[in-house]
Amino acid sequence: MSFSSIATFGLLAASALASPLDVSAAGVSLPGLPAHCMTSYKGIAFGYLPDDERADKVNMASLAALSGKKGCFFGDYSHVKGSSYDGKDITGKGKLADGAVVVPSIMPDGVTWKQVDAALAGRIANVAKSFTSQGLTVYLRFAHEMNWYAKPGRADPVYPGGMKYDEYKAAWVNVAKECHKIKNCFMMWSPNGNDLDQLGNWWPGAEYVDIVSLDSYPKDRATIDRGFGGSFGKVHDDFAKKYNKPFLIGETAFTGSEAEKTEWIKKLTTSDDLSKYPNYKGAMWFEYNKKENNKQNNFYVIYGHNKKEIDGVVANFQ
């Protein structure tokens, strides 16, 4: 998982303020990756969304200590409950990033898309600024899995803006404009792996998306066997490759055996068929033990594991 020779960073526009990620000149790469963070032998950067319910034990520093490798990405969540949003549920976590790229999933689960006006977008961007002011890079993952959480009847949480595509896109543009005023703030578009044929309805436009992403969890062994292409290939090709953007897996994990978890990581980091997906640059693992729908889902691959199991994961990385 160590990263001894990092890929060229994404280019920034030559202005004092940040602008949409410029990938036109030198090909795509993820911006702001810290030196020597974990990357696979195929050049895939790797990081975590650590279990925030056990943050005293499951955090970027403890995972690095257990594995001997520092994660490239630190993901966490923040909830927008109203127009006075200040992000205090996440802004104090800069030190927990341990130098990694911060990927704040900012969820408008208490406001509609229309309520994300320029003023509220500015408040959301201030969350990014709280991290960039500490020298950290931010991939702002606004309204992730909107194609799932906005569905009628969904609970915990619901995006009350619903399936109003134009209003969603207007909200996204408002946030993107504020993010792009901040150096080292990049917009990460991260739908859910369902209804992939409908994602065009949610696309905000290439000018306002810096990084294309997708959240997808294998449901069975057959999904693992299909590898990266089976779960992520369509979105990679339809959006990242089409618009020349880097592709980053926003969330993935598996609840099966330790051998199957390790195999899934191997498929996503060192498989030969990754050469078919040149814009694919990184992945984030959901390092949680979480109860959902009366089922305990243990996604851990580092925390709580013995040396042999951890070494099986580490073997995929430099």
UniProtKB/TrEMBL annotation:
Belongs to the glycosyl hydrolase 26 family. Residues 25-312 form the GH26 domain. The active site is at E145, E251. Residues 1-18 form the signal peptide. One of its GO terms (molecular function) is mannan endo-1,4-beta-mannosidase activity. Transmembrane segments: none annotated. One of its GO terms (biological process) is substituted mannan metabolic process. The keyword Ubl conjugation does not apply. It comes from the Eukaryota. Pfam families: Glyco_hydro_26. Keywords: Glycosidase, Hydrolase, Signal. This is Glycoside hydrolase.
